[in-house]
Amino acid sequence: MRCTRGPAIVLFFAGGILLLSLVMTYPLVTDISGSVPGPPGDNFEYVYKLWWFEHALLEKGQSPFFIPGVFYPFGYELALSETTLANTILGLPLTAAFGEVVAFNLLLLWSFVLAGLGAYLLAEYLTGSTVAAILAGLIFAFLPYRSGHVGTGHLPLMDTGWLPFVLLYEERLIRHARRREGLLLGLFYGLLALSSWYYAYMGALVVLLYGLLRARPWRAYVRSAQFWQAILGAGVTAGLIMAPALLPLLSLSLRGEIARTTFSLRYIDQWSASIGDFFLPSIMHPLWGKAMVALYPQNIHENLLYLGAIPSGLALYAVLHRRSKVVGALAVVGMVTFVLALGTTLHWAGQPVYVPVPGIVDDLFTRAMFAVTGKYALNPAAYSSLHVAGHIVIPLPTLALYLFLPFFNAMRVWARFGLIVGLVVALLAGVGAAAILRWPRRSFAARATIAGLLAVGILFEFATVPYPFGLSSVGPQPVDEWLRAQPGDFAVLMLPPEKAWHGPALYAAREHGKEIAYGYGTYMPRAYRAWQQHLADFPDDESLSAIREAGIRYILVGLKSYGDGEQEMRQRLAATTHLHLVATFKERPVLRDDRLINLVESSPAVPPTEMIGTVRYAYLVDEIAVYELTD
Length: 631
Description:
By secondary structure, the chain is α+β, with helices and mostly antiparallel strands. The protein has 27 helices and 16 strands.
């Protein structure tokens, strides 16, 4: 079924993706102005950032890259975290017109359209089949990787749609070596980088690897001045687009603001994908999701990487039956990024695979690993945290890259390379579908039926309705309303750190309008990190002295957030003579309509930010005690 694309088909497909995204995220459409998908977490961080950029640029007329009222009294350089300018700046009209919650949700929904269109246009360019391209677009738009990150609130990671545009114009540049293709390649790579620094790194790797594979033999390109002019144009364009976000980040790095820490190998390793993440049915599915949660533990925030049986089958058919440079290059890119996604050691069900060995083998292997990960590594990592007596792990290539490549240790969540694997499978599925639909002696009706069945099967495999992570209400808590009513400008501190280091705590500053002696993001300011160490044993004399010297007026203590230590903290607070209890508030429940998270057992596969003691943070309805220091 070879068709000629026209604007009407593109608009029709975009509209179809939008409608399907409303279905897949239902019931979001019923409360698009008051709630965001998923449990309270990073979603609140990016809702806050959307508001802050609009507030700083359009209301206060100042740079949005520094927030004086966060991490009081030091302030917050936003480049310490994702500024995701592809959302905060490009989404500015939406935020100004409809508010930050609506803007956040519209950007999420738009990401489905952009991802579907990007994969559609790239697949059609590669195959010449509009129908096959539609199938590729459906696969990429509704990959579980994307649907999963909707619920984790990772707005930067939802901007996957720029990646197929990057590959589209790289392919066009390889074929035509025109400056126009170079400029557009740079444009779309710049937008990809402004979405997420993860994607900047991953995208650069994919562009380099795909280009080297696809352009073989390289002699004609090496000698082509026109080709190098196009490459130069791509680099300059991408650099100019990235500069507003990259320059503040480089400045902070040179000033030593970005923490450089030697992590334990256990910490690094926990972000690895398991082989089963790619091939076992998705736990987000409305029919078999609950059974899969019980059968196969996994990190539901990062490792929802299922590729689908139908897409995988079509992709395999393409690799086996459609020999070409494009198919070969895509297949190699897919295999390389699959290995990278598997992380530093081999995993199954979210846990490292340990192989029992004799003691002498364990001793030799452990000595070698200590030397490689410590003494000789450019980016050291402590192996002791991963060692189990009488057993060895199975190191993977990503470990060598982490230890010995410059900047590679800036990567943390290896499973995110699964996005590239998903895009490759979507494109190869398009190639396979195009080949099947061109089989001779098939009527138009037969081909249409095959295409329709494939589309329905893909959507069924990737179904997420009703959305399994539920919705979180966005709005002030009772303590925020009380703080907003207090006269004057002052700063507040929230404890314990686990509660303060959380998206909803950051967004609360937008609701009550006071300065906050905490914040949330990738890195804390260096001066704040040093100051916070004085609070380790709150409410001891050292912590109270540090709070008093900082000029903080109120201390908000989330009592239930201490988990098993709640009663001990209540007793310590009651015994402290320098704290006066001003008020106590019970929080309103935030999360509703969840059909998945409440089933997930606490385990190392669940990030610690989602758990406090034995309490599920997403479901925690806390009791906030407001204290004021006395003389």
